[in-house]
Amino acid sequence: MTTPRSIAFILDWRPTVFAARLLLCGAYLLGGIVKASDWSAAVAEQAHFGMSPPALWAALTIAVELVGPLLILTGRLAWLGAGMLGVFTLLAAITANAFWAMPAGEARFMATNAFFEHLGLIGGFILVALVAHVAERPRRA
């Protein structure tokens, strides 16, 4: 079955790729900007999750949340940006949403949902890297 004409039109429309990339990584970019503009809150957030030294982890988080999306949005080394955000998202999910260590109840339910939503984001970053890889391949005659 072929893609319906209306869907193909949207998928072929040049801004669609940028919009999809922005939707996937925009929250990270915004998070990096917010953390960079409120350093003490960024450090406090890392301390809250037990990251030590919190200032180092805050700096690394800001760097990943700013550089990763910019690489994806510009399409330059998109695979690297996707990898950065994918690994970051996995580590954040394990650190902030450790549902397996929580007693049953609402908090565990919410952490479980958040953990698996983060896995979905990681899948999106894998797709970004795959699309970038396919686009880089030389065309065969």
Q: What topology emerges from the helices and strands here?
A:
Layout (H helix, E strand, L loop, with lengths): L4 H8 L1 H24 L1 H10 L5 H21 L3 H19 L9 H31 L5
Helix pairs in contact: 2-3, 2-4, 3-4, 4-5, 5-6
User: Counting H and I runs of at least 4 residues, what is the number of helices?
Assistant: 6
What does the largest sheet look like? Answer: none
Radius of gyration: 18 Å
Tertiary shape: globular
First-to-last CA distance: 26 Å
Q: Extract low-pLDDT stretches.
A: none
The overall pLDDT, averaged over residues, is 95
Tell me the fraction of residues in β-strands, as a range.
under 5%
Class from secondary-structure proportions: mainly alpha
Overall strand count: 0
Helix share bin? over 70%
The succession of helices and strands, N to C, reads HHHHHH
Write a concise keyword list for the protein shown above.
globular, 0% strand, 141 residues, mainly alpha
Explain what this protein looks like in three dimensions.
The chain has six helices and no strands. By secondary structure, it is mostly helical. The two termini are 26 Å apart. The longest helix is centred in the C-terminal third of the chain and has 31 residues, at 106-136. The chain has helices at residues 5-12, 14-37, 39-48, 54-74, 78-96, 106-136.
